[in-house]
Amino acid sequence: MTHIYNFSAGPAVLPQEVLKQAAAEMLDWHGSGMSVMEMSHRGPEFISIYRQAVADLRELLAIPANYQVLFLQGGGLGENAIVPMNLLGRCAQPATIDFVLSGSWSGKSIKEAARYASVNVAARPAGDAFTSVPPQESWQLTPGAAYLHICTNETIDGVEYNFVPTVQGDTPLVADMSSHILSRQIDVSKYGVIFAGAQKNIGPAGLTLVIVRDDLLGHALPICPSAFDWKIVADNESMYNTPPTYAIYIAGLVFAHLKRQGGVAAMEQRNIDKARLLYAALDFDDFYANRVAPENRSRMNVPFFLRDESLNETFLAGAKARGLLQLKGHKSVGGMRASIYNAMPTEGVQALVDYLNEFAGR
Ligand code: PMP
Protein backbone atom coordinates (compact mmCIF):
# COMPACT_ATOMS: atom_id res chain seq x y z
CA MET A 1 0.00 0.00 0.00
CA THR A 2 1.18 3.52 -0.77
CA HIS A 3 2.17 5.40 2.38
CA ILE A 4 -0.66 7.77 3.25
CA TYR A 5 -0.19 11.36 4.34
CA ASN A 6 -3.37 12.96 5.63
CA PHE A 7 -3.52 16.75 5.20
CA SER A 8 -7.02 17.10 6.68
CA ALA A 9 -7.80 20.27 8.64
CA GLY A 10 -9.46 18.21 11.35
CA PRO A 11 -10.13 15.67 12.57
CA ALA A 12 -6.53 15.30 11.59
CA VAL A 13 -3.44 13.15 11.61
CA LEU A 14 -2.33 11.78 15.00
CA PRO A 15 1.14 10.47 15.86
CA GLN A 16 1.57 6.85 14.71
CA GLU A 17 3.16 5.94 18.06
CA VAL A 18 0.06 7.17 19.89
CA LEU A 19 -2.28 5.15 17.68
CA LYS A 20 -0.14 2.05 18.12
CA GLN A 21 -0.09 2.44 21.88
CA ALA A 22 -3.85 2.97 21.97
CA ALA A 23 -4.31 -0.15 19.84
CA ALA A 24 -2.07 -2.21 22.13
CA GLU A 25 -3.97 -0.98 25.20
CA MET A 26 -7.42 -1.14 23.63
CA LEU A 27 -8.70 -4.34 25.24
CA ASP A 28 -6.77 -4.27 28.49
CA TRP A 29 -5.45 -1.02 29.89
CA HIS A 30 -2.45 -1.69 32.15
CA GLY A 31 -3.78 -5.01 33.42
CA SER A 32 -7.14 -3.55 34.45
CA GLY A 33 -8.90 -6.10 32.25
CA MET A 34 -10.85 -3.40 30.48
CA SER A 35 -10.66 -0.78 27.83
CA VAL A 36 -10.37 2.86 28.92
CA MET A 37 -13.72 3.34 27.18
CA GLU A 38 -15.36 1.03 29.69
CA MET A 39 -13.94 2.56 32.87
CA SER A 40 -15.85 4.64 35.35
CA HIS A 41 -14.68 8.23 35.18
CA ARG A 42 -14.68 8.18 38.98
CA GLY A 43 -12.48 5.11 39.33
CA PRO A 44 -8.80 5.32 40.30
CA GLU A 45 -7.60 4.14 36.86
CA PHE A 46 -9.30 6.88 34.92
CA ILE A 47 -8.54 9.52 37.56
CA SER A 48 -4.85 8.67 37.15
CA ILE A 49 -5.12 8.99 33.35
CA TYR A 50 -6.87 12.34 33.72
CA ARG A 51 -4.44 13.77 36.29
CA GLN A 52 -1.40 12.72 34.24
CA ALA A 53 -2.89 14.35 31.12
CA VAL A 54 -3.49 17.62 32.98
CA ALA A 55 -0.02 17.57 34.54
CA ASP A 56 1.66 16.92 31.18
CA LEU A 57 -0.30 19.68 29.47
CA ARG A 58 0.58 22.10 32.28
CA GLU A 59 4.24 21.25 31.79
CA LEU A 60 4.11 21.48 27.98
CA LEU A 61 2.51 24.93 27.97
CA ALA A 62 4.08 26.14 31.24
CA ILE A 63 0.59 26.95 32.49
CA PRO A 64 0.84 29.15 35.61
CA ALA A 65 -0.67 27.87 38.87
CA ASN A 66 -3.45 30.47 38.81
CA TYR A 67 -4.97 28.93 35.68
CA GLN A 68 -7.36 25.99 35.50
CA VAL A 69 -7.24 23.33 32.80
CA LEU A 70 -10.75 22.18 31.89
CA PHE A 71 -11.79 19.34 29.63
CA LEU A 72 -15.23 20.03 28.23
CA GLN A 73 -17.44 19.10 25.31
CA GLY A 74 -19.14 21.32 22.77
CA GLY A 75 -16.19 22.05 20.48
CA GLY A 76 -14.86 25.39 19.37
CA LEU A 77 -18.30 26.50 18.26
CA GLY A 78 -19.75 25.58 21.62
CA GLU A 79 -17.18 27.85 23.27
CA ASN A 80 -18.40 30.74 21.16
CA ALA A 81 -21.50 30.69 23.38
CA ILE A 82 -19.93 29.26 26.53
CA VAL A 83 -17.35 32.07 26.73
CA PRO A 84 -19.89 34.92 26.80
CA MET A 85 -22.15 32.97 29.17
CA ASN A 86 -19.20 32.63 31.57
CA LEU A 87 -17.70 36.10 31.29
CA LEU A 88 -20.61 38.51 30.86
CA GLY A 89 -21.56 38.26 34.54
CA ARG A 90 -18.31 40.10 35.41
CA CYS A 91 -19.35 43.45 34.04
CA ALA A 92 -22.17 45.93 34.16
CA GLN A 93 -24.89 45.39 31.60
CA PRO A 94 -25.36 46.16 28.79
CA ALA A 95 -21.88 44.89 27.99
CA THR A 96 -19.86 45.05 24.81
CA ILE A 97 -17.53 42.36 23.56
CA ASP A 98 -14.63 43.32 21.28
CA PHE A 99 -13.64 41.10 18.39
CA VAL A 100 -10.97 41.14 15.75
CA LEU A 101 -12.26 39.71 12.50
CA SER A 102 -9.36 37.91 10.86
CA GLY A 103 -11.07 35.01 9.11
CA SER A 104 -13.98 32.60 8.98
CA TRP A 105 -13.70 31.32 12.54
CA SER A 106 -13.54 34.70 14.25
CA GLY A 107 -16.50 35.60 12.02
CA LYS A 108 -18.50 32.70 13.45
CA SER A 109 -17.54 33.70 16.98
CA ILE A 110 -18.87 37.21 16.38
CA LYS A 111 -22.23 35.95 15.13
CA GLU A 112 -22.69 33.66 18.12
CA ALA A 113 -21.64 36.22 20.75
CA ALA A 114 -24.10 38.75 19.29
CA ARG A 115 -26.86 36.59 20.78
CA TYR A 116 -25.62 37.47 24.28
CA ALA A 117 -24.25 41.01 24.15
CA SER A 118 -23.49 43.80 21.77
CA VAL A 119 -20.38 43.15 19.78
CA ASN A 120 -17.84 45.59 18.48
CA VAL A 121 -15.74 44.46 15.54
CA ALA A 122 -12.62 46.36 16.54
CA ALA A 123 -10.82 45.55 13.30
CA ARG A 124 -11.58 43.82 10.03
CA PRO A 125 -9.65 43.22 6.82
CA ALA A 126 -9.37 46.06 4.33
CA GLY A 127 -10.82 44.03 1.44
CA ASP A 128 -13.07 40.99 1.09
CA ALA A 129 -10.42 38.32 1.57
CA PHE A 130 -8.84 37.25 4.84
CA THR A 131 -5.17 37.50 4.08
CA SER A 132 -3.65 39.21 7.11
CA VAL A 133 -4.16 40.06 10.77
CA PRO A 134 -5.21 43.72 11.01
CA PRO A 135 -2.32 45.55 12.75
CA GLN A 136 -3.06 46.34 16.38
CA GLU A 137 -2.58 50.11 15.82
CA SER A 138 -5.79 50.03 13.75
CA TRP A 139 -7.99 48.31 16.37
CA GLN A 140 -10.88 50.36 17.77
CA LEU A 141 -11.18 48.80 21.22
CA THR A 142 -14.03 49.54 23.63
CA PRO A 143 -12.96 50.85 27.05
CA GLY A 144 -14.31 48.43 29.66
CA ALA A 145 -15.16 45.73 27.10
CA ALA A 146 -16.30 42.46 28.68
CA TYR A 147 -13.44 40.77 26.85
CA LEU A 148 -11.47 40.87 23.62
CA HIS A 149 -11.79 37.78 21.43
CA ILE A 150 -9.25 36.78 18.80
CA CYS A 151 -8.71 33.64 16.75
CA THR A 152 -4.95 33.20 16.75
CA ASN A 153 -4.89 30.78 13.82
CA GLU A 154 -7.61 30.92 11.19
CA THR A 155 -7.85 27.32 10.00
CA ILE A 156 -9.75 28.04 6.79
CA ASP A 157 -7.89 31.15 5.67
CA GLY A 158 -4.41 30.16 6.82
CA VAL A 159 -3.87 33.39 8.77
CA GLU A 160 -1.88 33.20 12.02
CA TYR A 161 -1.09 35.87 14.60
CA ASN A 162 2.57 36.70 14.96
CA PHE A 163 2.06 38.86 18.05
CA VAL A 164 0.11 38.86 21.31
CA PRO A 165 -2.19 41.88 21.45
CA THR A 166 -2.12 44.19 24.43
CA VAL A 167 -5.44 44.73 26.18
CA GLN A 168 -6.72 47.78 28.01
CA GLY A 169 -7.51 47.84 31.73
CA ASP A 170 -8.68 44.52 33.09
CA THR A 171 -10.33 43.41 29.84
CA PRO A 172 -9.43 39.73 29.50
CA LEU A 173 -7.96 38.45 26.25
CA VAL A 174 -9.78 35.37 24.95
CA ALA A 175 -8.13 33.30 22.24
CA ASP A 176 -9.48 30.53 20.04
CA MET A 177 -6.33 28.46 19.50
CA SER A 178 -8.12 25.40 18.12
CA SER A 179 -5.85 24.86 15.15
CA HIS A 180 -2.41 25.78 16.49
CA ILE A 181 -2.30 25.06 20.20
CA LEU A 182 0.85 23.12 21.13
CA SER A 183 2.45 24.01 17.79
CA ARG A 184 4.38 26.97 19.18
CA GLN A 185 5.35 28.37 22.53
CA ILE A 186 2.85 30.71 24.13
CA ASP A 187 2.85 32.90 27.21
CA VAL A 188 -0.35 31.74 28.87
CA SER A 189 -0.20 34.61 31.37
CA LYS A 190 -1.05 37.07 28.59
CA TYR A 191 -4.48 35.47 28.14
CA GLY A 192 -7.58 35.28 30.31
CA VAL A 193 -9.03 32.34 28.43
CA ILE A 194 -7.61 29.98 25.82
CA PHE A 195 -9.83 27.40 24.20
CA ALA A 196 -9.31 24.74 21.57
CA GLY A 197 -11.21 21.89 20.03
CA ALA A 198 -9.04 18.79 20.33
CA GLN A 199 -9.33 17.41 16.83
CA LYS A 200 -6.19 19.02 15.35
CA ASN A 201 -3.16 19.03 17.63
CA ILE A 202 -4.59 17.41 20.75
CA GLY A 203 -6.53 14.25 19.94
CA PRO A 204 -9.95 13.04 18.87
CA ALA A 205 -12.99 15.22 18.26
CA GLY A 206 -15.40 15.49 21.17
CA LEU A 207 -12.97 17.00 23.65
CA THR A 208 -12.62 20.74 24.12
CA LEU A 209 -9.79 22.25 26.10
CA VAL A 210 -10.29 25.44 28.11
CA ILE A 211 -7.49 27.15 30.02
CA VAL A 212 -8.90 29.90 32.23
CA ARG A 213 -7.47 32.29 34.80
CA ASP A 214 -8.87 31.79 38.30
CA ASP A 215 -10.35 35.27 38.68
CA LEU A 216 -12.55 34.69 35.62
CA LEU A 217 -14.37 31.80 37.28
CA GLY A 218 -17.63 32.29 39.11
CA HIS A 219 -19.19 34.97 36.89
CA ALA A 220 -21.48 32.86 34.73
CA LEU A 221 -24.84 34.22 33.69
CA PRO A 222 -27.83 32.41 35.25
CA ILE A 223 -28.72 31.03 31.81
CA CYS A 224 -25.37 29.24 31.51
CA PRO A 225 -25.86 25.45 31.64
CA SER A 226 -24.22 24.10 34.80
CA ALA A 227 -22.19 21.62 32.77
CA PHE A 228 -20.60 24.57 30.94
CA ASP A 229 -20.13 26.82 33.98
CA TRP A 230 -16.34 26.87 34.21
CA LYS A 231 -16.38 27.29 38.00
CA ILE A 232 -18.54 24.22 38.48
CA VAL A 233 -16.42 22.26 36.01
CA ALA A 234 -13.19 23.41 37.72
CA ASP A 235 -14.50 22.58 41.20
CA ASN A 236 -15.24 19.07 39.96
CA GLU A 237 -11.94 18.43 38.15
CA SER A 238 -13.80 18.39 34.80
CA MET A 239 -16.04 15.60 36.11
CA TYR A 240 -19.21 17.46 36.98
CA ASN A 241 -20.75 15.47 34.17
CA THR A 242 -19.18 12.48 32.44
CA PRO A 243 -16.24 13.84 30.45
CA PRO A 244 -15.20 12.41 27.06
CA THR A 245 -13.01 9.83 28.75
CA TYR A 246 -11.51 8.08 25.74
CA ALA A 247 -10.68 11.38 24.06
CA ILE A 248 -8.96 12.55 27.26
CA TYR A 249 -6.95 9.32 27.33
CA ILE A 250 -5.77 9.80 23.72
CA ALA A 251 -4.97 13.45 24.43
CA GLY A 252 -2.88 12.25 27.36
CA LEU A 253 -0.96 9.92 25.06
CA VAL A 254 -0.39 12.82 22.65
CA PHE A 255 0.92 15.03 25.49
CA ALA A 256 3.31 12.30 26.67
CA HIS A 257 4.46 11.80 23.09
CA LEU A 258 5.09 15.55 22.71
CA LYS A 259 7.20 15.53 25.85
CA ARG A 260 9.30 12.69 24.44
CA GLN A 261 9.75 14.72 21.24
CA GLY A 262 11.31 17.56 23.20
CA GLY A 263 8.18 19.50 24.08
CA VAL A 264 6.60 22.51 22.43
CA ALA A 265 9.87 24.34 21.72
CA ALA A 266 11.18 21.39 19.69
CA MET A 267 7.82 21.02 17.97
CA GLU A 268 7.82 24.73 17.08
CA GLN A 269 11.21 24.45 15.40
CA ARG A 270 10.03 21.45 13.38
CA ASN A 271 6.88 23.33 12.42
CA ILE A 272 8.90 26.35 11.28
CA ASP A 273 11.02 24.08 9.10
CA LYS A 274 8.05 22.21 7.64
CA ALA A 275 6.19 25.43 6.83
CA ARG A 276 9.28 26.96 5.25
CA LEU A 277 9.71 23.92 3.02
CA LEU A 278 6.10 24.04 1.80
CA TYR A 279 5.85 27.82 1.29
CA ALA A 280 9.15 27.80 -0.63
CA ALA A 281 7.69 25.31 -3.11
CA LEU A 282 4.52 27.42 -3.46
CA ASP A 283 6.50 30.64 -3.94
CA PHE A 284 9.02 29.17 -6.38
CA ASP A 285 7.21 30.65 -9.39
CA ASP A 286 3.64 31.63 -10.16
CA PHE A 287 2.35 28.12 -10.86
CA TYR A 288 0.92 28.14 -7.32
CA ALA A 289 -0.11 31.01 -5.08
CA ASN A 290 -0.67 31.53 -1.37
CA ARG A 291 -2.19 34.99 -0.89
CA VAL A 292 -1.58 35.48 2.82
CA ALA A 293 0.77 38.26 3.96
CA PRO A 294 4.13 36.55 4.64
CA GLU A 295 4.23 37.63 8.29
CA ASN A 296 0.79 36.08 8.94
CA ARG A 297 1.18 32.85 7.01
CA SER A 298 0.00 29.97 9.14
CA ARG A 299 2.48 27.26 10.01
CA MET A 300 -0.41 24.82 10.40
CA ASN A 301 -2.90 25.46 7.58
CA VAL A 302 -1.59 26.36 4.16
CA PRO A 303 -4.22 27.31 1.58
CA PHE A 304 -3.01 27.64 -2.00
CA PHE A 305 -4.33 28.01 -5.52
CA LEU A 306 -3.23 26.67 -8.85
CA ARG A 307 -2.70 29.48 -11.36
CA ASP A 308 -4.76 27.42 -13.81
CA GLU A 309 -7.73 26.34 -11.74
CA SER A 310 -8.99 24.07 -14.52
CA LEU A 311 -6.24 21.69 -13.34
CA ASN A 312 -7.66 21.38 -9.80
CA GLU A 313 -9.28 17.98 -10.27
CA THR A 314 -6.24 16.57 -12.06
CA PHE A 315 -4.04 17.87 -9.27
CA LEU A 316 -6.18 16.26 -6.58
CA ALA A 317 -6.41 12.94 -8.43
CA GLY A 318 -2.63 12.81 -8.86
CA ALA A 319 -2.15 13.67 -5.20
CA LYS A 320 -4.51 10.91 -4.13
CA ALA A 321 -2.69 8.39 -6.31
CA ARG A 322 0.49 9.28 -4.39
CA GLY A 323 -1.21 8.89 -1.01
CA LEU A 324 -1.47 12.65 -0.40
CA LEU A 325 -4.99 12.99 0.95
CA GLN A 326 -7.49 15.70 1.92
CA LEU A 327 -5.87 18.55 -0.01
CA LYS A 328 -9.06 20.11 -1.34
CA GLY A 329 -9.54 23.63 0.01
CA HIS A 330 -12.46 24.67 2.19
CA LYS A 331 -15.54 25.35 0.09
CA SER A 332 -15.68 29.00 1.16
CA VAL A 333 -12.15 29.66 -0.13
CA GLY A 334 -11.70 27.11 -2.94
CA GLY A 335 -8.36 25.93 -4.23
CA MET A 336 -6.27 23.65 -2.04
CA ARG A 337 -5.30 23.50 1.60
CA ALA A 338 -2.60 21.47 3.27
CA SER A 339 -2.87 21.21 7.04
CA ILE A 340 0.50 20.30 8.48
CA TYR A 341 -0.15 19.87 12.19
CA ASN A 342 2.36 18.62 14.76
CA ALA A 343 1.77 15.01 13.81
CA MET A 344 2.49 15.56 10.09
CA PRO A 345 6.04 14.30 9.66
CA THR A 346 8.59 16.24 7.63
CA GLU A 347 8.57 13.33 5.16
CA GLY A 348 4.88 14.03 4.51
CA VAL A 349 5.59 17.67 3.72
CA GLN A 350 8.52 16.62 1.55
CA ALA A 351 6.29 14.17 -0.33
CA LEU A 352 3.82 17.00 -0.98
CA VAL A 353 6.61 19.34 -2.09
CA ASP A 354 7.95 16.68 -4.48
CA TYR A 355 4.49 16.33 -5.97
CA LEU A 356 4.01 20.12 -6.24
CA ASN A 357 7.28 20.34 -8.15
CA GLU A 358 6.50 17.37 -10.37
CA PHE A 359 3.02 18.66 -11.18
CA ALA A 360 4.42 22.09 -12.05
CA GLY A 361 6.91 20.40 -14.41
CA ARG A 362 9.92 21.64 -12.50
N1 PMP B 1 -12.30 27.51 15.75
C1 PMP B 1 -11.36 27.12 14.90
C2 PMP B 1 -10.13 27.96 14.75
C3 PMP B 1 -11.52 25.94 14.16
O1 PMP B 1 -10.58 25.56 13.30
C4 PMP B 1 -12.69 25.17 14.35
C5 PMP B 1 -12.91 23.87 13.62
N2 PMP B 1 -12.26 23.66 12.46
C6 PMP B 1 -13.65 25.64 15.23
C7 PMP B 1 -13.43 26.79 15.94
C8 PMP B 1 -14.92 24.89 15.44
O2 PMP B 1 -14.67 23.76 16.17
P1 PMP B 1 -15.77 22.63 16.40
O3 PMP B 1 -16.11 22.07 15.07
O4 PMP B 1 -15.06 21.69 17.30
O5 PMP B 1 -16.95 23.27 17.04
Automatic annotation (TrEMBL):
Signal peptide: none annotated. It comes from the Bacteria. InterPro entries: Aminotrans_V_dom, Aminotrans_V_PyrdxlP_BS, Pser_aminoTfrase, PyrdxlP-dep_Trfase, PyrdxlP-dep_Trfase_major, PyrdxlP-dep_Trfase_small. This is Phosphoserine aminotransferase. Binds 1 pyridoxal phosphate per subunit. Catalyzes the reversible conversion of 3-phosphohydroxypyruvate to phosphoserine and of 3-hydroxy-2-oxo-4-phosphonooxybutanoate to phosphohydroxythreonine. It comes from Massilia eurypsychrophila. Residues 4-352 form the Aminotransferase class V domain. It is found in: Cytoplasm. Pyridoxal 5'-phosphate binds at residues 105, 155, 176, 199, 241-242. Belongs to the class-V pyridoxal-phosphate-dependent aminotransferase family. SerC subfamily. GO terms for cellular component: cytoplasm. It catalyses: 4-(phosphooxy)-L-threonine + 2-oxoglutarate = (R)-3-hydroxy-2-oxo-4-phosphooxybutanoate + L-glutamate; O-phospho-L-serine + 2-oxoglutarate = 3-phosphooxypyruvate + L-glutamate. SUPFAM superfamilies: PLP-dependent transferases (SSF53383). It holds the Pfam family Aminotran_5. The modification N6-(pyridoxal phosphate)lysine is found at residue 200. Its cofactor is pyridoxal 5'-phosphate. Homodimer. Keywords: Amino-acid biosynthesis, Aminotransferase, Cytoplasm, Pyridoxal phosphate, Pyridoxine biosynthesis, Serine biosynthesis, Transferase. GO terms for biological process: L-serine biosynthetic process; pyridoxine biosynthetic process. Its EC number is 2.6.1.52. L-glutamate binds at residue 42. Pathway: Cofactor biosynthesis; pyridoxine 5'-phosphate biosynthesis; pyridoxine 5'-phosphate from D-erythrose 4-phosphate: step 3/5; Amino-acid biosynthesis; L-serine biosynthesis; L-serine from 3-phospho-D-glycerate: step 2/3.
